[in-house]
Amino acid sequence: MKLAITGKGGVGKTTLTALLAQAYADAGRDVLAVDADPSPCLAGALGLPDELRAKLHPIAEMDELIEERTGAKPGTLGGFFTLNPRVDDIPQRFSVLHRGVRLLEMGSVDMGGSGCICPESAMLKTLFTHLLFRKDDVLLLDMYAGVEHLGRATVDFVDAMLIVVEPTRRSLGTAAQIKELANDIGLTRLYLVGNKVRDDDEAAFLEAETPGLPLLGYMPADLKVQEADRLGIPVYDHVPVLKISATEIVKKLAAF
How far is it, in rounded angstroms, from Cα 88 to Cα 132? Predict the structure, then answer.
């Protein structure tokens, strides 16, 4: 299963990705979590120790690797370079493993149909679209905010997309934009996950205003999320109510 997690900036995409990653790992699944945000912070949400974080380097910033695989220096526009470079060894070589979750940092990724045609873009798109997994493996992609990243490569890569929303009209407006663009390019397995939900009224608001997408579940608002970040420990361990929510979402995804 390959899942992309997206939504408006600040809604809790990384928190959900970390929660789902650990929930799947605890269920015995092999998990690869990919941080595709230009400012990666999934390692913190997963509670990786400093010695493991020091080993992580965004693939998009590995100039020598990109040149080796594509035959051109990063930033090169025009000219000749390999459009389908070898990428099969990258997840194992450049990821770290912690508590059953393998984490890979991608850096800034242009997943859309337009944008620069350059060696680093070619390499990252190839990596996204050609990662091979066994049937029961799980790949979670923590995408950066907004809708600009959506493109044909996204459709080729993911089985479904989870859109994280807060109980606000702006957040739901972004979800509607993501739905429209995703449908335009053929991605139809879209689900909402409510986050920072404080009470039944806010849950009812999300249910009433959803842009025609099924709600997988809710993550209650909890100040312990910020506390976990300050302490550098996994939100999965520190906020039991969110651990329960993540486990329920995993079960619902299995039913679809």
Answer: 8
